[in-house]
Design a protein that fits this description.
The complex is a heterotrimer of chains A (about 575), B (about 220) and C (about 300). Chain A is an alpha+beta fold and about 575 residues long. Chain A contains twelve helices and 32 strands. Chain A has three domains: about 160 residues, no CATH class; about 210 residues, no CATH class; about 60 residues. Chain A has a five-stranded antiparallel β-sheet with strand order 4-5-6-7-8, with no helix packed on it. Chain B is an all-alpha fold and about 220 residues long. In chain B, α2 packs antiparallel against α3, α3 packs antiparallel against α5 and α3 packs antiparallel against α7. Chain C is elongated and about 70 Å long. In chain C, α4 runs antiparallel to α5. In chain C, β1 and β2 form a beta hairpin. In chain C, the strands form three sheets. Chain C has a six-stranded mixed β-sheet with strand order 6-7-8-3-9-10, with helices on both faces. A four-stranded antiparallel β-sheet of chain C has the order 2-1-4-5, covered by helices on one side. A four-stranded antiparallel β-sheet of chain C has the order 12-13-11-14. Helix content of chain C is about 35%, strand content about 30%. Classes of the chains: A alpha+beta (about 575), B mainly alpha (about 220), C alpha/beta (about 300). Chains in contact: A-B, A-C, B-C. β32 of chain A pairs parallel with β10 of chain C.
């Protein structure tokens, strides 16, 4: 019957609709819990400071008049992490200039002039467009547009084929770029209208640059280096060539460029999380600068992280204005869950100097304050603030309303998703407790999985209860054994969504009493699905006579309806013509 | 089919009139916003353009008109059931599939009545005010495609809840489900994720509506 | 005549746990006028609605023009004219608009014939359907059904609300339609004189079953009403099968029997009635006898 064939289609369709509509309020519930936890998180968990930085020459750092050593600090705005990662803000930030999906690398506009620099993937060339305008009142209006097309082979004012074609460029600052398909670096010099090519890397080279120059992801993390504060006389200042800052502070040593200048090197972030040093002159790799620091997590996770694994990172090199020599780099990254930040300092040889992470103290309910940070913020986030445990429990319960199958998929796929996408997740939740467990490292995978099942046990128990209820009702309404089995498995896997789907799609025939077994049966089935007996409509008093003629083909037509008559006795109905 | 579509439009002409007025208001607002932003610094509409467009879209089209589309879908199904329109049409050389398809096409036309003028105006204004940089073409298409799909999904919710003898389920049910559903765009954005979920939701919703309509007694 | 335009196989319909149709089997050949009779609530309209695919059957299959009811193509629907019991028209439409809609959707439309009908029935074009009288709605419904020149005409109490003149006009239209080759009519009506006038075959629904399904003449010959007068008290039971109805008063017994044959006459003779008179019955009389509540004596 068509209805039998189309029932699974109807169930799947309704199931998907129900799943989406159930997931939305659960999402907002989890978001509210997370936002609440962020708001109550102690502010001391937003900052890390490493002092002394050990990137300054020892004679300065160890100067007897030092009042404060050089330090490196990082700051994350924990309250601003959630909403930028939702769909619409993320969509625009990814497509704005310098966004991860943007081909527009810089843009400037003014009434008098504007310029833009972007990659036109249709022609495979970079385009540097300048527009000069004269529109002052009283003066002749004119405008002039100049385009430069930049390819691997050179620069021209027209998009010649002789310029070659870039295929998959990664643009860094300082007009240095890398083409992933050509496996080489290029340096663009607009002034001299030249493009310098670096040596081609081997096709199986392990370097896989994904970002260059200004290494950052997300706008809620900032890092900062500060020179040591030294008490000195004006004579010392003059003799040593030190300067004073805006606020009158003494700057014994200045950074070359506080944004991304690494002196003779250029920072290149690799897909693996390694940060390489690129020689600006030769366009060849000159060594390792360091690694993205692995943030602390609720459950211990891997020590090396990739850019995809962290929600935000920022890396800055350090070179001093005096000699423009690379001194080292400092990097900070925020965990996927946005609950902790780690700061690391690397020296000029790429050796880790020091690392530290955000911490918070225990909240004292009576005093209404926290002690100084002793607990990693990845744990303090969930338990240390006022009302934090309650929010955490609610978040945990909401996660357990997710279909168990999705929780198990979250466990196994937790590391596969880009960190920011966890904030937009509706079905599979990388940032849930089960997701965090999935990223946990340890020796015994079986024990970890069993523990994970324990963590989602409320949803499994709920699923089993729902499965029992659904199967009981399915038997009552006469669904086939296969259908009941499917509903049983589906209810365990999908929990509340399966129950709602079942209620909306179950057969709506009103059950009638079977005269044979007395139990309720479906009238649209030939036989009672309980006792297998045939069909008798006991409440109708049917006449025992018939006046039915012979069939038109000359066949005898015998009316043999079983159960006619009040007492169910068979009646002689063979028609005889007179 | 054209006769059926014409019948649907004539029966629900109010929605189309409101859609035209709404579209006119949106277009007028958008033109004034662009001219306001670009009046002193015409070229500074560059990066304000798409976010301003998206903001307008969110405020007016997604929030307000999605409720209108849900109401349109619910009204179409509810009036059909109470006035037994399909009962008559089924006795003519018209299948239930054709009736439902004509209804859906009418809903799509209603959505496009608002969005097409808005898209055209946006494209023209961006061409006038914003330098031709490559990102904007993709923005416009993606944003409006997702808004169209969201509106259509809300319309499908209306179709699903409307086939009901009582007035409460189509009204309250549709309202609640639409309010629940619309923020999906905020969660998933205008990218491929949003497209995937919206498309699947629309397909599933239409399948459910089709099953309900096909097996219902007219 | 062999081609079956309408076929119903083991049709069962339940409404909220209440059985309305209990295993209906029916075949209507091409060119036949089939009168489907039954008391109110017997299930006539239900059968028709299931045939047209407006209602779904609980069990069983129905076929129209050789195709299952739920799978009728637009072309097949275009060959079926239907007049519903409640004159199922869109009440909020004006007559003109409704006509335009039906005309636009129909595959064939006999404009001349339709205009003739509209003139005959004097239907106002600019009035809303809800403002028409019941009779005018019936006329409009009929005109719309006839205008498509249907191969199969299904009429559910079509003359409900029609005045005498209009009823006669409708009957003449029906006969006129039938004169065209291969046209079939299935109709149900409570005005049995009309049915008797035009129907070829009769079907009577009782307690969810089709207890009568035969040509009209055959029905009249097989259902007999006898007045028996006995010399003494009439017996309690004649020990006959297929007694439709039985009334006893003193020495007189009036019995209605289905399929009266020689054997049954012989059994009656064994009771030695002093007289046995056949009471002629019209279709209406037969219908009343068949659909009366069954007396306990007859059931036993």
């Amino acid at each position: 019957m068509e209805s039998v064939r189309s029932y699974p289609v109807k169930v799947f369709a309704m199931g998907f609709v129900v799943l989406v509509l159930i997931s939305l309020p659960l999402f907002w519930g989890r978001l509210i819990c997370r936002t609440s936890l962020s708001n109550i998180m102690s502010h001391q968990a937003e900052t890390v400071r490493i002092e002394p930085s050990r990137l300054v020459p020892p004679e300065l750092e160890n100067d007897p008049n030092v009042e404060r050593h050089s330090y490196v600090s990082s700051y994350m705005n924990i309250e601003e992490i959630t909403f930028p990662n939702l769909g619409i803000p993320d969509y625009f930030s990814a497509r704005m200039p310098e966004g991860r999906l943007s081909n527009l690398y810089s843009f400037y506009s003014h009434s008098q002039r504007s310029h833009s620099f972007y990659f036109d993937d249709k022609i495979g060339l970079f385009v540097h467009c300048k527009l000069l305008r004269q529109n002052r009142p009283g003066q002749r209006k004119w405008s002039k547009k100049v385009n430069f097309y930049i390819g691997p082979e050179g620069i021209s004012e027209t998009p010649d084929k002789t310029l070659g074609r870039f295929i998959e460029p990664v643009m860094g600052g300082d007009w240095i770029l890398y083409d992933r398909k050509m496996h080489r670096f290029f340096h663009i010099n607009l002034r001299e209208k030249t493009v310098v090519k670096g040596p081609e890397l081997a096709k199986d080279d392990y370097h896989k640059p994904i970002q260059m120059g200004r290494l950052h992801k997300g706008e809620y993390l900032s890092i900062h280096w500060s020179a040591p504060q030294i008490k000195a006389t004006d004579k010392d200042i003059k003799e040593r060539g030190w300067s004073k800052g805006r606020l009158g502070e003494l700057i014994p040593i200045a950074e070359a460029n506080y944004v991304h200048d690494a002196g003779e090197y250029f920072l290149v972030l690799d897909e693996s999380g390694r940060i390489d040093l690129l020689d600006k002159e030769t366009l060849q790799f000159a060594g390792i600068g360091g690694y993205l620091p692995a943030p602390e997590t609720f459950f211990p996770s891997k020590e090396k992280v990739t850019p995809k694994d962290v929600l935000s990172y920022r890396v800055k090199p350090l070179a001093f204005a005096a000699d423009n020599k690379y001194r080292g780099m400092y990097a900070a990254s925020i965990s996927r869950e946005g609950t902790s930040m780690t700061l690391a300092v690397y020296d000029e040889n790429g050796r880790l100097v020091r690392t530290d992470c955000t911490k918070a103290g225990e909240y004292n309910r009576y005093r209404g304050s926290s002690k100084s940070g002793t607990i990693p913020s990845s744990r303090a986030f969930y338990f240390a603030g006022p009302w934090a445990p309650a929010n955490t429990v609610v978040k945990y319960l909401l996660e357990n309303f997710q279909p168990p199958i999705f929780s198990i998929i979250s466990y196994f796929t937790a590391s596969s998703f880009e960190a920011g996408s966890g904030y937009r997740a509706l079905f599979i939740l990388p940032n849930s407790f089960i997701g965090m467990l999935g990223r946990e490292v340890g020796d015994n995978a079986v024990a970890r999985f069993v523990f994970a099942l324990f963590v989602i046990s409320p949803s499994i128990v709920l699923g089993m209860f729902i499965a029992w209820r659904v199967c009981k009702d399915a038997a009552a309404v006469g669904l086939t054994e296969n259908a009941r089995l499917c509903w049983f498995i589906g209810s365990i896997c999908f929990g509340p969504a399966a129950y709602i789907t079942y209620r909306l799609t179950r057969p709506r025939e009103t059950l009638v009493s079977c005269p044979n077994c007395g139990r309720l049966r479906r009238p649209d089935m030939d036989k009672c699905h309980r006792c297998g007996s045939g069909w008798v409509v006991a409440e109708m008093t049917v006449p025992r006579w018939r006046v039915i003629d012979r069939d038109f083909a000359g066949e005898e037509q015998c009316e043999t309806s079983a159960g006619d008559g009040a007492d169910g006795a068979a009646v002689d109905r063979t028609v005889e013509r007179e | 089919m054209l006769t059926l579509i014409k019948r649907e439009i004539e029966d629900h002409i109010v929605y189309f009139l409101v859609a035209v007025i709404f579209a006119a208001m949106l277009v007028a607002t958008e033109i004034s916003v662009f001219y306001k932003i670009g009046s002193d610094e015409p070229q500074s509409a560059s990066f304000n353009g798409p976010p301003a467009v998206a903001f307008l879209v969110l405020l007016f089209v997604v929030i307000w008109s999605t409720l209108g589309y849900c109401a349109m879908g619910a009204t179409q199904m509810y009036t059909d059931r109470t006035r037994k329109i399909s009962a008559l049409l089924s006795t003519l050389p018209v299948s239930r599939g054709q009736i439902l398809l004509a209804r859906i096409i009418t809903g799509i036309l209603g959505i496009l009545t608002v969005q097409v003028p808005f898209v055209i105006t946006t494209a023209v204004l961006l061409y006038i005010f914003v330098p031709p940089v490559p990102i904007y073409g993709g923005f416009i298409f993606e944003i409006f495609a997702r808004v169209f799909l969201t509106s259509f999904a809300c319309y499908c919710i209306g179709l699903q809840t409307g086939w009901n003898p009582s007035k409460i389920t189509p009204t309250l049910g549709g309202l609640v489900l639409t309010c629940l559903f619309v923020p999906l765009v905020q969660i998933k954005g205008f990218g491929l994720e949003g497209l995937f979920i919206l498309s699947l939701f629309i397909a599933a919703s239409l399948i459910c509506t089709w099953h309900k309509f096909r097996s219902a007694s007219l | 005549m062999d081609k079956k335009v309408i076929q119903i196989e083991n049709l069962v319909k339940y409404y909220d746990g209440r059985c309305v149709l209990d295993g209906i089997n029916l075949k209507v050949p091409e060119g036949c006028i089939y009168g489907l009779l039954g008391r109110n609530g017997a299930g006539k309209t239900t059968i028709i609605r299931i045939l047209l695919g407006i209602e779904t059957a609980t069990r069983g299959q129905t076929y129209l023009l050789g195709t299952e009811s739920g799978r009728l193509s637009s072309k097949q629907r275009g060959r079926i004219g239907y007049v519903a019991e409640a004159h199922n028209l869109i009440q909020s439409y004006k007559v003109g608009r409704l006509i335009k809609l039906c005309k636009g959707l129909s595959l064939q439309w006999n404009e001349e014939f339709f205009n003739h009908l509209i003139e005959t029935f004097r239907l106002p074009m600019d009035r809303k359907v809800s403002q028409l009288s019941t009779g005018m709605r019936a006329e409009l419904n009929l005109a719309l059904a006839m205008a498509i020149d249907p191969q199969l005409l299904i009429l559910d109490d079509p003359t409900l609300g029609l005045d005498t003149v209009a009823r006669r006009q409708f009957l003449e239209l029906a006969i006129e339609l039938l004169q065209k080759d291969g046209r079939t009519i299935l109709f149900s009506s409570h005005i049995l004189s009309d049915v008797e006038r035009i129907a070829d075959r009769i079907g009577i629904l009782v307690a969810g079953k089709l207890v009568v399904d035969c040509p009209l003449e055959e029905l009249k010959s097989r259902v007999k009403k006898l007045r028996l007068i006995f010399p003494e008290e009439a017996p309690e039971s004649l020990h006959l099968t297929e007694i439709i109805n039985q009334q006893k008063q003193g020495r007189e017994m009036v019995v209605t029997i289905a399929n009266l044959n020689k054997q049954k006459r012989a059994v009656i003779d064994t009771f030695k009635p002093s007289s046995c008179t056949e009471i002629p019955m019209s279709l209406e009389d037969i219908f009343i006898e068949c659909t009366k509540p069954v007396p306990a004596a007859v059931v036993d």
